[in-house]
Structure formats: structure tokens, C-alpha cells
């Protein structure tokens, strides 16, 4: 006898195993085909079905069964074309006839690995839980004993310094006739320092982002600096920058990143003699919070003509960066040689600092930097940071939360008496729930001199669909339905760089207002409350003890 279920069907999945199910309403759909046309992963297709329909058409309503051919929209039961839940179909449907619905009993994690390869995705970790940052409250409110400031009318200067700050006794300063001056005879090295806004746009490369998205961010940063007088800086990410930017005056708002793949750095080095402005800083990337111990990866689908020309590589090949800088055998040598060589390239006029993953070894790197006079800062990227492409196991199971990692590094500097010398930049999971200013202020009070944001800029400036339920999160495939992380012209034409720039400006102006609202009750107006941990409280004793802040419930 034939088996009840054919063997080939026995190895297929039912839609109940998929992370998102398509809900389609036959009565509302007008069969226009827009939804199937815009689906980035082809998870839905038009189909023809034969259906048994019970109807009554005679004067005497006698039900009869008939078979009719009908046109439907159906979800494809193929794990290679699973619905990511992006909702682009809902966005274009004129009659609200279709939408993806999260399937809480899905078994996607059981079937995600195909062909013996670990499942890779973009986005952020699958963790909808409330983060430590969102549990922190600001409880040091000055009133009668120490009057608070008026956030609406008082003059504020929400700025921070990027660069190593010498202690007063080491500054080459002389007093002549009661006037301070610089001692020109001193051979003391004075590190370069930049005054910046304490929230910076983190490293997202040309290649990881589409041309309109990257251009929109850059235009927004330029407008903030030149019109709004907010000195926001933006990190270029690995992979070089458009050649015209290297020779423009807008380069001074960019932090150029050099990573272990060295993509695009030939063009940058050759352009140094022609630069009309120095970059804001140089960031040397050793790791990312979303995939610590792993290098960068730009998948072949996104290495199209423009990206290949900027990076100096062939088209349509995977661009993988090694997990470490291969020419260095230790962190001591890497930090010393890389920082010194980059400082020399720009005549010691530009701050140079490394970016590392949040791990238990962060303090070892910090202590090495504290002894290096050319190290300008340390950027620590926590586990909740986003990524353009990483193995799922790295995103979800590796890394260190930023709050505790930053705090232990800052307290280490305090014990050395160097907390005001070497700035710490915190990143990873900031504004995960949308609380940008609150999360930034909390990290500043835990010891950060500045914070870096990336995924939030996609969500807030370009309306990214991705979330922590693995919704969309196909940044690595080059099929981004919003046109944010794709190099496909048919997709990135959906994104207007002018609207992205407009939203960037709005985000930072709003953050500036909210930071003032937080700092005003603490009586801070001209300097950031860096390390002012007595202004924080939390309702969890374990967190309070770990961060050395007060417990309040």
C-alpha cells in the first residue's frame, strides 16, 4: 500500500513552524498584485485554486455544492523564502487585505540552519526584555537646598570632549603678567581634542547602508553642524567613503574607521595631501558588540559596482574582515603601532582611538591605553549593538552588556586617578526602546563621555521595519524592503535622502532638548555629569550593587 503521506511531503514544513504567518482576506483583496510585487523575499505568490463552494441561487434556497476556480494570495511553505514579517505588503495594500502576524509557537530556530551553514542575519539580538538602561531612573533632583535650573530658559552647553585630556600640572601653560599663555619652549605633547555633541552616529559603512541612506545621514550631520550649531560627528564604518567627501570641507564632521579588512584605505591615504580639512577622528575597529571575536562581513549580494569601486575589490564577492588586525600579534603591539601610525599620518592633529567589543577583557585594553599618550579614547560596543551581517549564535549568545562593562572600566580609571583624562565612548543597545536621551544620560552618569548610536538611526530616521522579534532583520541579504541596507537600485530608490536628513536633524534637536531636561534638575549646565552616579537609582538590588548606584523601590 502507498503510505498515507508521501515521503517527499514528509520532509516539508507546515506554515505553523514559520516565524510569521500571512493573514489574507479574500473578501477585501482586489487582486492588484502589489503585495507580491514588493515582497523582498518572495514569501507570497499569486495562485489559482479550485475550491468547493456551497451556494444557493434558485428561488427556493436549496444549498448546492459547486467547484470554482479562484485567484488567491498564498504563503510559500519554503524555509528559504520564509516571511520575515516586514509588513511591506500591508504598506502597499489599498484595502488592508493582507498582513503578517507573529507566530509565538514557531519552530524557526530548529530549521534556520540550511546547507550546513550557521544562520546569518542582520539587525539586533532577539531579546524583547527590558534592558538595564531602561530600568535606570534619575533620582537626584535639586530643589530647595540646591535650586534646579530652568531647562527652558537657562543657557546650556551640552558638549563633550573627544581626545585625551592632560592633567593641569602637565599642560604647557605659563602665566605672564597675570595672563595665561602657551609655553612654546616646552616639548610636552598636547593631544588633539575635539568638542562634540555627546551623542554620535556610530559606524555604518558605505556598503552596509545604501547610497541614499548614507548620504541622508551625512547631509543631516552637516546641517546640524553648520545651521543648528550642534557639533554632531558621524563614523564612516569600514570600507572607505565616497572620494569627493575626502576632499570636501565636510570631512571634519566624519570619524574615519579603519578595520582589519583595510577596505577603502588606499584611497584615504592617497587623499591625505589633498584634504582641505582633517577628519574629526580616526577609529580603529577591533571588534563589534553584536559579534565579539569576529570580523566584519559584507556579503556578496551587496558588493555591487559602486561599493566594489570604493573598496577596490571585484564585484559580487564576500568581503570578510579578519577577527583581528593580522599584522599584529598582541593587543599591546596593535594598540601602540596602529594608534601611533595613524597619528603620524595626520601629523598628530587628529584624535585616534580603538573600538572594541564589550567583554571581560575590556579592562585589559583600557589599562594599556591609559599608558599610551597618543590614545585619544576607548569605544566599547555592548552586546545589544546591531550588525549588518552576523551569525545568529553570535548576536544572541555572545558579548557583554554595555552598562556594567562601561561602569567597571570607568571605576578602573577612577582608581588610577585618570577618569578625567581618557574618554570612554559607550555603544550597543542605546535607545532600544526609543529612549535615546534617557539611555544616553544614564550611560554618561555611569562614566561615558559620549555615546554612539547606529540601529536607532535606521529605525528613527528611515523607518526600519526590524525589531527584536526577528522581524525583517534581513540587512545582510541586500533585500531590505525600505531601501536602507541594500545596493539594489530598485529597492534603494524607495528611500529619499532628503527625508532621512530631515529626520536626523529632528532626532538630535529633540535629544538636545531632552538632555537639558534631565541635567537641569541636577544643576548641570556647562559640563556633563560624567560619572555622577549618585544621580541614578534602580529597583533591582543586584543591578544596584553591580553598578554601584543606589537601590530605590
Q: Can you describe this structure?
A:
This protein has 553 residues and is an alpha/beta fold. It folds into two domains: 16-54 and 64-111, Alpha-Beta Plaits, CATH 3.30.70; 135-551, Alpha-Beta Barrel (TIM Barrel), CATH 3.20.20. It is built from 18 helices and 23 strands. An eight-stranded parallel beta sheet has the order 11-21-20-18-17-14-13-12. Strands 6-22-23 form a three-stranded mixed beta sheet, covered by helices on one side. A two-stranded antiparallel ribbon has the order 1-4. Helix 14 packs across helix 17 and helix 15 (455-462) crosses helix 17. The longest helix has 23 residues, at 497-519. The N and C termini lie far apart (69 Å). The mean pLDDT is 92.
Question: Main traits of this protein?
Answer:
18 helices, 8-stranded parallel beta sheet, 3-stranded mixed beta sheet, 23 strands, TIM Barrel, Alpha-Beta Plaits, 553 residues, alpha/beta, 2 domains, single chain
Amino acid at each position: 500500500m502507498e503510505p498515507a503521506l508521501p515521503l517527499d511531503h514528509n520532509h516539508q514544513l507546515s506554515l505553523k513552524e514559520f516565524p510569521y504567518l500571512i493573514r489574507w482576506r479574500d473578501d477585501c483583496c482586489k487582486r492588484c498584485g502589489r503585495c507580491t510585487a514588493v515582497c523582498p523575499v518572495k514569501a507570497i505568490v499569486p495562485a489559482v485554486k479550485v475550491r468547493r463552494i456551497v451556494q444557493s441561487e434558485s428561488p427556493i434556497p436549496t444549498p448546492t455544492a459547486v467547484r470554482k476556480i479562484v485567484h488567491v494570495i498564498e504563503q510559500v511553505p519554503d524555509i528559504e523564502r520564509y516571511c520575515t514579517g516586514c509588513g511591506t505588503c500591508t504598506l502597499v495594500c489599498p484595502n488592508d487585505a493582507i498582513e503578517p502576524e507573529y507566530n509565538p509557537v514557531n519552530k524557526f530556530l530548529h530549521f534556520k540552519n540550511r546547507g550546513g551553514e550557521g544562520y546569518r542575519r542582520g539587525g539586533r539580538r532577539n531579546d524583547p526584555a527590558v534592558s538595564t538602561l531602561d530600568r535606570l531612573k534619575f533620582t537626584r533632583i535639586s530643589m530647595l537646598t540646591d535650586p534646579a535650573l530652568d531647562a527652558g530658559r537657562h543657557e546650556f552647553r551640552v558638549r563633550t570632549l573627544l581626545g585625551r585630556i592632560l592633567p593641569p600640572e602637565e599642560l604647557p601653560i605659563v602665566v605672564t603678567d597675570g595672563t595665561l599663555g602657551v609655553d612654546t619652549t616646552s616639548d610636552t605633547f598636547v593631544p588633539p581634542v575635539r568638542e562634540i555633541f555627546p551623542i554620535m552616529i556610530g559606524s555604518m559603512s558605505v556598503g552596509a547602508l545604501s547610497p541614499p541612506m548614507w548620504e541622508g545621514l551625512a547631509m543631516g550631520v552637516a546641517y546640524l553642524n553648520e545651521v543648528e550649531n550642534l557639533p554632531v560627528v558621524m563614523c564612516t564604518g569600514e570600507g572607505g567613503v565616497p572620494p569627493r567627501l575626502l576632499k570636501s570641507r565636510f570631512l571634519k564632521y566624519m570619524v574615519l574607521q579603519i578595520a582589519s579588512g583595510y577596505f577603502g584605505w588606499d584611497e584615504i591615504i592617497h587623499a591625505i595631501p589633498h584634504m582641505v580639512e582633517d577628519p574629526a577622528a580616526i577609529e580603529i575597529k577591533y571588534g563589534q558588540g553584536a559579534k565579539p571575536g569576529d570580523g566584519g562581513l559584507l556579503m556578496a549580494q551587496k558588493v555591487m559596482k559602486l561599493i566594489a569601486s570604493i573598496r577596490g575589490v571585484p564585484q559580487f564577492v564576500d568581503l570578510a574582515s579578519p577577527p583581528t588586525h593580522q599584522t599584529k600579534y598582541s593587543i599591546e603591539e596593535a594598540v601602540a603601532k596602529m594608534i601611533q601610525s595613524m597619528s603620524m599620518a595626520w601629523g598628530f592633529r587628529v584624535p585616534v582611538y580603538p573600538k572594541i567589543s564589550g567583554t571581560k577583557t575590556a579592562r585589559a585594553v583600557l589599562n594599556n591605553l591609559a599608558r599610551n599618550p597618543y590614545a585619544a579614547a576607548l569605544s566599547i560596543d555592548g552586546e545589544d549593538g546591531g550588525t549588518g551581517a552576523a551569525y545568529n549564535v553570535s548576536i544572541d549568545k555572545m558579548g557583554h552588556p554595555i552598562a556594567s562593562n562601561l561602569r567597571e572600566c570607568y571605576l578602573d580609571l577612577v582608581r588610577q586617578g585618570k577618569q578625567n583624562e581618557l574618554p570612554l565612548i559607550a555603544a550597543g543597545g542605546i535607545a532600544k526602546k526609543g529612549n535615546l536621551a534617557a539611555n544616553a544620560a544614564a550611560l554618561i552618569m555611569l562614566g561615558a563621555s559620549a555615546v554612539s548610536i547606529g540601529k536607532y538611526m535606521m529605525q528613527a530616521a528611515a523607518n526600519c521595519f526590524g525589531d527584536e522579534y526577528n522581524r525583517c532583520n534581513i540587512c545582510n541579504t541586500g533585500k531590505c524592503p525600505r531601501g536602507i541596507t541594500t545596493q539594489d537600485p530598485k529597492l534603494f530608490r524607495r528611500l529619499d535622502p532628503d527625508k532621512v536628513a530631515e529626520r536626523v536633524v529632528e532626532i538630535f534637536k529633540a535629544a538636545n532638548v531632552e538632555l537639558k531636561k534631565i541635567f537641569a534638575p541636577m544643576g548641570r549646565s556647562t559640563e556633563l555629569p560624567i560619572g555622577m552616579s549618585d544621580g541614578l537609582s534602580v529597583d533591582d538590588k543586584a543591578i544596584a550593587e553591580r553598578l554601584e548606584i543606589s537601590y530605590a523601590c
